[in-house]
Amino acid sequence: MSGSYEDRDGKIWMDGVFVDWRDAKVHVLTHAMHYASSVFEGERAYNGKIFKSREHSERLIASANALDMPMAYSIDDIEAAKAATLRESGLTDAYVRPVVWRGSGEDMGVASAKNPVRMAIAVWGWGAYYGDAKMQGAKLDIAEFKRPSPDTIPVHAKAAGLYMICTISKHKAEAKGCSDALFMDYRGYVAEATGANIFFVKDGEVHTPLPDCFLNGITRQTVVGMLKDRGITVHERHILPDEMEGFEQCWLTGTAAEVTPVGQIGDYTFEVGEITRKTAEAYEKLVRS
After folding, report:
1. Which CATH number fits domain 11-124: 3.30.980.40, 3.40.640.10, 3.30.470.10, 3.20.20.140?
2. Counting Cβ atoms within 10 Å, is residue 4 exposed (0-12), middle (13-18) or buried (19+)?
3. Catalytic residue list contains 158
4. I need a surface site. Which of 29, 163, 192, 243 has the fewest CB within 10 A?
5. Eight-state DSSP code of residue 159
6. pLDDT tier at 129 (50, 70, 90 boundaries)?
7. Distance CA 117, CA 115 (A)
8. What is the pLDDT of residue 2?
9. For 132, left (φ over 0), alpha (ψ -120 to 50), or beta?
């Protein structure tokens, strides 16, 4: 599947019914378009099964609640809708995108309590998020923006508005020949990439930023558990930028990114070492088990 995402064959689930892909539209005065009242999930299906599906549905509802958008659907409803949409797509390996937003209605100011909360689910084929970097090691720029403080915005929601600086930073990174950008947080600690969590290796132990002001990714949690099961020490802590000079290996995790090695961040370089390779291999085996 290629071309514009609005001009494709297939069906999209919208508010409980399937509509033709090209007809899955909203009005220009949809509240979410003007005020970022939208949350979403990114999920992958392998061999016809959505990995960690229920955890994603739980987080979708939690994100909607964080934005004061009460949903009409339960976790079981969302699970059934995702499964039906995956079957309708005819795909077994696919990307699954549920999205929840404030639609158009009686309100068109900041307040939107009278407007309906809507939901859609789309499924499409999507390969390696970072392309060849999946094998060779991604190159990351260092973003100018910082991840915000928890007292400024609901940082643990997977909300559309939190990705504004991600889009800007990724565009700037790609213009420099990089695959992505690394954010620091509001205190200056290493945080995450634009859509993925980050891990480092030093002396056989793993270090990863403490997710106290950004999303604790489901893939991140999965990988932390896998590493501990292998007897590898994992330090979840605040990491200063200059510590990157002493780290030997690095990788990113995310539903889209899966486990992607990192070869360079700014002036810091890393090898695609044994722990990185084995983690990527173990994750690939897990999601297809």
Report:
1. 3.30.470.10
2. exposed
3. yes
4. 29
5. B
6. confident
7. 7
8. 64
9. alpha
Give domain limits for the chain.
11-124, 133-287
- Measure Cα distances from 183 to 10, 30, 102 in Å: 37, 31, 29
Q: Out of 134, 139, 158, 170, which one is annotated catalytic?
A: 158
- Cα 100 from Cα 262, distance rounded (Å): 32
Q: Which of 177, 289, 147, 279 is nearest to 224 (CA)?
A: 279
DSSP H/E element including 56: helix 53-66
CATH of 133-287, one of 1.10.3720.10, 3.30.930.10, 3.20.10.10, 3.40.50.2000: 3.20.10.10
Helix (H, G, I), strand (E, B) or coil at 245: helix
Which residues have a Cβ under 8 Å from the Cβ of 266 and sit 6 or more positions away? 140, 141, 142, 182, 244
Query: Encoding tokens for residue 183?
Result: 């954010």
18-58 tens-digit pLDDT: 999 999 999 999 999 999 999 999 999 999 999 999 999 99
Query: pTM of whole model > 0.90?
Result: yes
The angle formed by the CA atoms of residues 132, 236 and 273, to the nearest 5 degrees, is: 35
